[in-house]
Design a protein that fits this description.
alpha/beta; seven-stranded mixed β-sheet; two-stranded antiparallel sheet
């Protein structure tokens, strides 16, 4: 764990946080003097702290920290207290980043970081209901507001449950798991993570539970993505923030799921397209030119050292875009 990833205490809450690909991600921003940067998913504030350190080295600048989790913002404000004159905290969903930035008078930025994974703090805080490793009320809301995992598990019909577990969890036994959930909730509501965990394990044949990840991992992931609308906001934040990006400005985005990575990849590529005229046109008449270049032909992956220190980084992929 790096120096910038020490525990952060927030009241009685302790953030144990490992910032995934910390230096690679902030390197991707190419920090410059008087630059305005955004940490769209502040979490444990590891990336935020590194950005502020580098701004200090080059002579100053501004950072905006956005997070929908009030606990994350409280902890970040403590962790970043030495830089309070250079940082602004905003509670909100990162999909609304353009509007949130404009609400504090920011029209242009020089870079943005987004770490799309659920934070270690959220996973390791039992009462938040994110983890199948702790018995807790089914919740999984990053914002602590709105629809919860309880509502999804007990309110969605069998077809809808199967669809989200298949799409967001890529779970081969999705139909069987959905069927078992519906059968179980007819007897009594499914209120806790351990109740759901037991139902999932019963639905997956024993021989398929011996190898690979925990049997509940994919289903819990799918429900979390559905509860928080995690995939819907990716394209929204890319298309919304790009017009605010100054020339030479960069996006440095980390994904933890193949669907997330695909959305980032294609979202970035949309800005690299040039002429859209039919191939048989002798000359270009559309006038379209590339607006950006992707600096990562292949995504950057965690080092072996990082994987040893933080196994949760294993599925992480970093992609970087620069505006022309």
């Amino acid at each position: 764990m790096s120096d910038s990833d020490k525990n952060t205490k927030c009241g009685e809450i302790v953030f144990n946080h490992y910032s995934v690909m910390l230096h690679e991600t902030v390197d991707g921003l190419n920090i410059k003097k008087d630059g305005v940067y955004v940490d769209c998913t502040t979490g444990g504030a590891g990336h935020s702290l590194e950005i502020l350190k580098r701004l200090e080295k080059v002579g100053g600048g501004r950072l905006v920290c956005i997070d929908q989790d009030p606990d994350a913002l409280n902890a970040a404000s403590i962790r970043l207290k030495d830089y309070k004159d250079n940082v602004t905290f905003i509670k909100g969903n990162f999909g609304d980043a353009p509007e949130l930035l404009k609400s504090v008078g920011i029209e242009k930025i020089d870079g943005a970081v987004a770490d799309l994974g659920v934070s270690s703090f959220q996973l390791d805080t039992p009462e938040r209901g994110f983890s199948y490793m702790h018995d807790a009320p089914l919740d999984m809301r990053m914002s602590k507001e709105g629809k919860s995992a309880f509502d999804v598990v007990n309110g969605y019909d069998e077809r809808k449950l199967s669809e989200i577990i298949t799409l967001y969890g890529e779970e081969r036994f999705a139909k069987r798991i959905a069927s078992f959930i519906v059968e179980a909730r007819e007897k009594e509501p499914i209120k806790t993570t351990f109740q759901l965990n037991d139902i999932i394990k019963a639905a997956i044949p024993a021989k398929n539970r011996k190898d690979g990840p925990h049997p509940s991992k994919r289903t819990f992931q799918a429900i979390r993505i559905e509860v928080n609308g995690e995939l819907e906001v990716i394209d929204k934040v890319i298309t919304g923030l790009f017009p605010m990006l100054n020339p030479g400005g960069r996006f440095s985005f980390i994904s933890f799921h193949s669907l997330e990575d695909r959305l980032i990849k294609h979202g970035f590529l949309n800005f690299t397209k040039g002429c859209t005229c039919p191939q048989d046109f002798p000359v270009c008449v559309c006038g379209n030119k590339p607006q950006a270049v992707v600096l990562t032909k292949k995504p950057i992956l965690p080092s072996e050292k990082e994987l040893d220190e933080n196994p949760r980084s294993r599925s992480a992929k970093l992609r970087v875009l620069e505006k022309i």
